[in-house]
Amino acid sequence: MATYNVGDLRKGLKIQIDGEPYLIVEFTFVKPGKGQALYKCKLKNLIKNTVIDRTWKTGDQVEAADVEEVEAQFLYRQGDHFVFMNTETYEQYDLTLDQVDEAWKYLKEGMICKMLLFNGAPIGVTPPYHVVLRVEYCEPAARGNTATNVTKPARVETGAELMVPAFVEINDLIKVDTRTGEYIERVKEE
Predict the structure, then answer these.
(1) How many CB atoms lie within 10 A of CB 167?
(2) What confidence tens digit (pLDDT) does each residue in 34-53 have?
(3) Which of 8, 93, 174, 183 is exposed most, by the fewest CB atoms within 10 A?
(4) Cα dist. 104→25, 31, 38, 158, 175 in Å?
(5) CA distance 69 to 118
(6) Element (H, E) at 54
(7) pTM score of the predicted model
(8) Angle at 135 between CA 134 and CA 140, to 5 degrees
């Protein structure tokens, strides 16, 4: 198994601790007045979505995680299970709602996503940064409400509820940033 010297660690790197993959979320180098330099890291468990803190001394070694990212097409949802297909190998993956996490709000059939595999098994999925979704239901805008930045909840075709500006109506297509869940703009139908 490949290893990293702690001096080579950086934000965004994926490492393995106790057999589980972690993503380095924050990385700080600390040089106290006396003694060895320390490397303080905030790590996110890629399977459980928990965050831990770890500190290493200069010269320590850390295991590299066997994590790869592949393109996968979202095929369909069946209850709390989501089925994806690797676009290169055509292998199908069944992910649970816990593994998909908040991404379920933006998944449309046929959409190409990035899937994270750990030792060949799926552990998570990332939808495209921007998706276009159809509004299925929202309250009508109140007449005369011309204040800026007035928002209301709207249910989109995936079943998720998102906050949208007051002028958005049922059947509108809206572009959403999947990283923040925020409305970007209305989109014209082609």
Answers:
(1) 11
(2) 888 899 999 999 888 889 99
(3) 8
(4) 23, 43, 39, 8, 16
(5) 9
(6) strand 51-57
(7) 0.77
(8) 155
